[in-house]
Amino acid sequence: MGTLLLDGVSKRYGEATAVARVDLDIRQGELVALLGPSGCGKTTTLRMVAGFIEPTAGRVVIGGRDVTRLPPHSRDTGMVFQSYALFPHMSVADNVGFGLEMRKVGRAERDRRIAEALRLVRLDALSDRLPRQLSGGQQQRVALARALVVSPAVFLLDEPLSNLDAKLRAEVGLEIRDLQKRLGLTTLMVTHDQDEALAMADRLVVMEHGRVLQVGSAEDLYERPANTFVAGFVGRCNLLAGTREGTDVFRLASGAAVPCAPDATARGGMLAIRPERIEVAPDPAGAGRLKALTYLGARTEYHLELAGEAIVAVTPTPLPDDPRRRLAAGDPVRITWVPDAARVIPLDSAESPAR
């Protein structure tokens, strides 16, 4: 079975820890994304799975087989590199078939599998072209076909969309996800792009400084972040300091009281609320003030001040006759949200990884 288990996988370089005890169990046919800023350890983790970096501690298990000390070609993985890593002097077909040739697959079988892989990525009509004759999106699909053609137990993607423009990123991302689901590929993907991870992954693994901070679905991480780093990294989030009073009131550092989701556990810390959960309305007696407004077509972004705190709200752009269309910087406004939209995150939650 194409399952992947990371059991206490760590990597140290002298005194520096690049990855600290990653435990992760990826199920057959699941796409899991390692998400985090540059230098957080996600690419090192992927390369330990691929066999390009040897762990300092822990095990990598694929399909129930311990592959920790095996070389890359013996691990039954297919990898798509950030740079595509295509051979410029080889045709599309030869690039795709290179792994099969290294595995001593016979010519007839190799040709059949190359044709099938190119058909899957819709490049069968371009098999004789060289990489330089292809667009960026087409080159990415060649790299995908090359990884797929060996029928890997585990599919590895290293920033697969980072070299594409915005339109192609969305298009190729959908193609990768469709292929992954249709073929039932167990997939581990590295990305620093939160939108990419949210759109493609069954589960996300947020990393910082070599540690796993939280594992969960896109909804888990977005709606219930375990700490301030996750709240701020996965989507935009307003983080306000203060203390809970009772079960559903949060007292800001300025002294103002605002509603929060009922919870008897977290008292002090940060109030986390997403910009799209905040309502803004013109109100001469409102406690808030509009500092700036940005029209973004389908949505409008409001930069606000409430009790000395800077807050960002995002709403669908109001219709022309909506009073909000006449708001201008300096206007008083009413700022509201339903209590369940605001979650208190304890101060110490950012210090301990969440599983």
How many domains comprise the coordinates? Answer: 2
- Side by side, the strands of the main sheet go 6-7-8-3-9-10
Please indicate the percent range of residues in DSSP E strands (runs of 2 or more): 25-35%
Low-confidence stretches: 348-355
Shape: elongated
Q: Percentage of helical residues?
A: 10-25%
CATH fold name of the largest domain = Rossmann fold
Provide the succession of SSEs. Answer: EEEHEEEHHHEHEHEEHHEEEEEEEEEE
Q: Which CATH architecture of the largest domain?
A: 3-Layer(aba) Sandwich
How is the biggest beta sheet arranged?
A: 6 strands, mixed
Number of beta strands: 20
Distance between the termini: 24 Å
InterPro entries: AAA+_ATPase, ABC_SmlMolc_Importer, ABC_transporter-like_ATP-bd, ABC_transporter-like_CS, Mo/tungstate-bd_C_term_dom, P-loop_NTPase, Transp-assoc_OB_typ2
Keywords: ATP-binding, Nucleotide-binding, Transport
Main location: membrane
GO molecular function: ABC-type transporter activity; ATP binding; ATP hydrolysis activity
Compile the SSE list and pairings.
Elements: E1 4-13, E2 16-26, E3 31-35, H1 42-50, E4 57-62, E5 65-66, E6 77-80, H2 92-102, H3 107-120, H4 136-148, E7 154-158, H5 166-183, E8 186-191, H6 194-200, E9 203-208, E10 211-216, H7 218-223, H8 228-233, E11 238-245, E12 249-252, E13 257-259, E14 268-273, E15 279-282, E16 288-295, E17 299-306, E18 309-316, E19 332-336, E20 342-346
Helix pairs in contact: 2-3, 2-4, 3-4, 4-5
